Target: LacI family DNA-binding transcriptional regulator
Amino acid sequence: MEAVTIKDIARALNLSTSTVSRALRDSYEISPETKRLVMDYAERINYQPNPIALSLKENRSRVLGVIVPQIANNFFSQAINGIEAVAYERGYHVIIMQTHESLEREILTVQQAVARRVDGLLISISSQTTNVAHLQAIQQRNVPIVMFDRVSAEMDTPKIVADNFGGSFAATEHLIQTGRRRIAFVAIPPFMAITQDRLAGYQAALSQYGLPYDEDLVRFVGFGEHELAPIIDQLLDLPHPPDAFFMAFDRLALGCMTALRNRNVAIPEQVSLIGFTNISVADLLDPPMSTVVQPAQEIGHTAAERLIELIELKQKPSAPLPTRPNPVSIPNQLFIRESTRRGV
Model:
C-alpha cells in the first residue's frame, strides 16, 4: 500500500493542504473543530508523516549516526543500548555502522552517515585511525560529533570515556596485593589513547609498590585472530616468566585463558589472570575470571545526551555552549574472582 499523504487527507476532507498541515501541527491558526476533524481522520487511516519531508522542512532528521569498530564486542553492544535508550526518550532514531577496525571503512561510514543527513555523530574510532582529518572535515561542515571510549586528542569535541588509568591501576594493585610480582601487561596497539592510559595506570601501580617496570613483560597485539597465542608463549618462555597476566583489552582475556590451558598452566595456582573486559560470562568461566568492567551503558547514555544537547543548541544559535569537563571520565568497577586468588 502506498503511504497516505497530506494531499490525500485534504482531498478526502475537502480542505486545502495548508489547512491540513497546520492542523496536524496543532497551529493556533486552525479552529478546534477543524483540528479535531483532521486528527480523527488521520488516526483512522493510520497517517504517518514522511520523515524525509519533515527533515527537509525542519532542516533536521532526528537521526543519530553511531559508528563503532565492532557491534559484536560486548562493550560496544552495551554502549549502543545506552545510546538507543536516550535517543528513544528524546524522540531520535539511531543508525548503527561498524568499521571492523579499518580506517578506510571508517572514512566511508562517516561519509554515508552524513549523506543520510544525520543530525550528529557518535563515534569510537578504529584501531587504524591515527589521522582524524575525515572527522575534522565533517566538523567543519557544522555536524556535531561526540567521541566515546576510543577518542583522539586531535579532535576538539566532547569525549566520554571510562577511567582507563584508574581501572588499570586498581587491577595491577590487586595483583600485587595478592603476592604477584612479575605481572605481564598485554594490550592493543600503543598509539591508542585507551592503551596509553591503561599502561600508565599499570606503571603507576608498580611504582607505588616499589616494583620495577620491565619492558619484557609488556606486549602489544593487533586484531588478528592468531596473534595472541605466540605472545603468551613468548612471555612464558622468558628466563623469569610472569606470575600474573593483566589483559588490558576486552577480547584478550579469553584468548589468554585458552593459551594458558594449552600450555597446561594452572590458573590461579601458577599464574593469576585478570581482564579489562565487559564479557557477561566472566563469572561462569573455569575458574571465574577477575575483571575490570567498564560502565559501557552509562558511557553510551552520557555520550548520546551530550550529542543531543549539541544538536538542539545548534537550532538556537544565540544559546551559549555549556562548559563541561573534557573528557568526561566515568569510573570502572573491579570484580575479584577465583582467577586472581592469592598464589599458593
